[in-house]
Amino acid sequence: MRLIRRLSQTVAALSVLTAAAAHADTYALVTINQQALFFNQINDGAKEAAAAAGVELVIFDANNVPAAQNTAIENYITQKVDGIILVAIDVNGVKPAITEAKEAGIPVIAIDAQIPDGDNVSFVGVDNAAAGADIGKFFADYVKSDMGGEATVGVVGALNSFIQNQRLDGFKEAAAASGDAVTFTETVDGQNVQDVALGAAENLLTANPTMTAIYATGEPALIGAVSAVESQGRQSDVKVFGWDLTAQAVKGIDEGWVTAVVQQDPAGEGKAAVEALVTLKGGGTVEPIINVPVTIVTKENVDQFRSMFQ
Question: Read out DSSP for the chain?
Answer without folding.
Answer: -HHHHHHHHHHHHHHHHHHHHHT--EEEEEES-SSSHHHHHHHHHHHHHHHHHT-EEEEEE-TT-HHHHHHHHHHHHHTT-SEEEE--SSTTTTHHHHHHHHHTT--EEEESS--TT---SEEEE--HHHHHHHHHHHHHHHHHHHSTTEEEEEEEE-TT-HHHHHHHHHHHHHHHTT-SEEEEEEEEE-TT-HHHHHHHHHHHHHH-TT--EEEE-SHHHHHHHHHHHHHTT-TTT-EEEEES--HHHHHHHHHTSEEEEEE--HHHHHHHHHHHHHHHHTT----SEEE---EEE-TTTGGGGGGGG-
